Amino acid sequence: MSHVDRQRAQRLMSERGLDALVLGKPENFAWATGCAPGVAAFWRRAGAALALVPADAGLPISAVVTELFAPGLRRALGDEQVRSHADWIETADIRPWQAGDESAAVLAERAWDAAGRPSQGLSRPAAFDARAAFAALGELLARHGLARARIGLDLDYWPVLDFQLLTETLSEVRWVDASATTGAIRAVKSPGELERLRLAAAIAEAGMHAALAAVGDGVSRDDIADHWTAGATADARQRGLRLTGQWEYVSVGPLPWGGNAAVREGSVIKFDVGCLVDGYSSDCGRTFAWGRAAPRAREIMAALQEAFEAGLEVLRPGHLLSDVYARASSAMRRAGFMRFSRGHFGHSLGRDTFCEVPPFVAAQAHMPIEAGMVLAFETPFYVDGEGGFIIEDQFVITDTGAQACWSLPRGLVQLG
Q1: Domain end position, chosen among 187, 203, 225
Q2: What was the pLDDT predicted at 256?
Q3: What is the pLDDT of residues 313-343, one digit of tens each?
Q4: Cα-Cα-Cα-Cα dihedral of 283, 408, 246, 195, to 10°?
Q5: Is 84 helix (H, G, I), strand (E, B) or coil?
Q6: Chain segment 57-82, per-residue pLDDT in tens
Q7: What share of the chain is helix, strand, coil (3-state, %, to 5)?
Q8: Which end of the chain lies in a sparser environment, N or C, as judged by fewer CB atoms within 10 Å?
Q9: Cβ-based neighbours of 235, under 8 Å, separated by 6 or more
Q10: Are 250 and 374 found together in one domain?
């Protein structure tokens, strides 16, 4: 099922003078169609899978995909909305004639006849033919009256050579960059996306309890991280889920990037972790100390917590993402860190190649905070000599404020 809010998409595309979007990034394709882009997308080249999202919400979403994955896409979108192009994989469907005693070769030839395959001259590409994919896209554009339209692309993904081939193949279309528009549409989540992101956060927090139970004198960073991974995996299994990925940035000791350090008295232990459910990544972080934390560690965490609380006050509809950034930055300066400069204090979450997805909580992000957004808000600081420090929560924005997805305390917790 598509996760596109068609009314929101129509409004944002209309404001930017776009007649449609063509999405080539595999993650954007899956978001728009609700279907897998196929194995050809592993090459990360445009043309393997293309989603066409007209600005007019009354027009259906269409797509181009390789032959192997076309049947599933047709079931989701309808036969008329799908065009396919050849990939390198050879197949034959002999099911209608299996009851007989003919050989496999005879049945394969019969299947190819039924599918309309030419008797000679068929030559499959080594992977896929992007020119054929763009020609198929042209058929869909013509069908919807968009052959000379102004169409946005997710150009933050497209390789230069693929974009050049697209413009040569479909030269009458006015192609423009719509990366920011696509990000703005995706920033407000569908109910299905909200469910996946909440689940991913809950599973990651379950892993935290397993990791914290393993902390002790002499325990290594890698052992703590392994316990988090195992705990999250076990929780997902209990829920009847299989994670599509996990990631962790755990650090131990006075060096934020100190490798496989072991826990000692006063060690700072930083967790920045996430789990992926159907490709949707959570992102939360906490900081702990083993035994009594050093005075400077407590000072740093107190400043970060003040900055976090200051930003959280305006993390709600009626404010801009840049307001959150300004509040957090001002709090760090009030705490005495006068030249503290962080590029962003968080980001959107979703299905993508990395957990940090635009829009960002940044000085330049004069974008309204809206209900339905899922934002990771964070105040990190990495101090060689003291350790890595972070407070990060994943929030679902509602009409009345921000709902946190983790329940662990945000301040510096002393363990042991």
Answers
A1: 187
A2: 96
A3: 999 999 999 999 999 999 999 999 999 999 9
A4: -70
A5: strand
A6: 999 999 999 999 999 999 999 999 99
A7: 40, 25, 40
A8: N
A9: 202, 203, 206, 207
A10: yes
> 32-60 burial by CB neighbour count: b if 16+ within 10 A, else e?
bbbbbbbbbbeeebbbbbbbbbbbbbebb
Q: Tell me: do 182 and 215 sit in the same domain.
A: no
151: CATH? 3.40.350.10
HSE, side-chain direction, 13 A CA sphere, residue 55: 19
Counted residue by residue, the chain has a size of: 416
Question: Is pLDDT above 80 for 121?
Answer: no
Nearest one of 274, 220, 268, 223 to 382, comparing CA atoms: 268
Q: Which domain holds residue 152?
A: 6-89+124-187
Residue 135 shares a structural domain with residue 214? no
Over residues 393-412, the mean pLDDT reads 97
Residue 98 in tokens: 């299996």
On whether both 258 and 130 belong to a single domain, the answer is: no
Give the long-range contacts of residues 156-164, CB within 8 A, separation 24 or more.
156/25, 157/24, 157/25, 157/28, 157/46, 158/24, 158/46, 159/44, 159/45, 159/46, 162/24, 162/45, 162/46, 162/47, 162/130, 163/46
Instruction: List Cβ neighbours of 226 (8 Å cut-off, separation of 6 or more).
Output: none
210 φ, ψ (degrees, to nearest 5): -65, -40
Cβ neighbours around 329 below 10 Å, total: 20
CA distance 51 to 37: 9
Name the residue type at position 155: L
